[in-house]
Amino acid sequence: MSHSSHYLLLDRIEIEGANAISSPITYGFPALSGFMGAIHALNRKLMQSGLEVDLSGVLVACHEIHVQRYRPHPYTDYTFNQGRNPIKKDGKTASIIEEGKAHLTVSLVLEVSASRQAARDIDDDQATIEQQCKALVFQQRIAGGSVVAIKGVQLYSYTNEEDIKKALLPAFVLMDAQEHLIDITHQMQTTAPEATALDALIELATLHHEPVANEKSGWKTRSKKTGRGWLVPMPVGYQGLIPAFDSGKLENSRNPEYSSQYVETIYSLGKWVFPRRLPNQFSNCFWRYSQSDNLYLFTQTTEAYQGE
Predict the structure, then answer these.
(1) This prediction's pTM
(2) What is the pLDDT of residues 223-273, one digit of tens each?
(3) What is the DSSP string of 20-39?
(4) What whole-number distance in Å separates Cα of residue 273 and Cα of residue 300?
(5) For 95-123, what is each residue's pLDDT tens digit?
(6) Based on the number of CB atoms within 10 Å of its own CB, is 145 exposed (0-12), middle (13-18) or buried (19 or more)?
(7) Cα–Cα–Cα angle for 295, 101, 22, nearest 5°?
(8) Which residue segment(s) compose the domain that 254 sits in?
(9) CB–CB of 13/154 below 8 Å?
């Protein structure tokens, strides 16, 4: 029987060319699926090497991000910088497929679950496992981008939570803020009963500029996010549209060995939180897979942040 035994810190991973289009309607920081998928792949490689562990949760902290975009004037819309692909084998110019890319530096903290014997093996061979994980991360992509540098990889005991928070500084940790979305939706429904959570998401992305009488400035800016912290709309998973196809039934699927299903993106709110203000229960900061019926989600256990 496995239990949470260690934390694995992948410190300051520099990623180039990550996918900045996180969903059909959001862009900027890559989607959680890009990080969760990369860690799932890392977990499978560790299992194949004989290390019986489960990387059961992922904490995502961002130190720096540069979305590759451009606008000629301060009041015009941004457009993504595009790159030209190499010429085709027949010598013709390859088509430009619009993409959104970002260069970023992130730290990932992985929750390591293992049996008691496997946990003892980790303690006995900690340096080797850290080097193995570092080499494996360099060999794969994260959120579609290339890993160009890693400051370090370090295993921590499950009780050294404060040391990890210190190691993350300075950064902001991505947390679930679904309770804010629910609260704002209810507020809007008091004056507009037909308002939905989608209306609340759009409202959160809106700045209202209102005239103020008898003031020199003449204008004030109002937002639903005021006083709630650094809120951002984000995709948190998928919902199945039709029943899943059995393996091998859907033509041209990426991997015919597994069942396939048509899905749509589910949206919610995230919140960037300074490490010093994370919940007292550190395990609540980790994103985990959650599957129920036709819902395939990334979830956290919610708890009030320190200072709120």
Answers:
(1) 0.90
(2) 888 889 999 999 999 999 999 999 988 888 888 888 999 999 999 999 999
(3) ---SSS--SSPPHHHHHHHH
(4) 14
(5) 888 899 999 999 999 999 888 888 888 88
(6) buried
(7) 15
(8) 178-269
(9) no
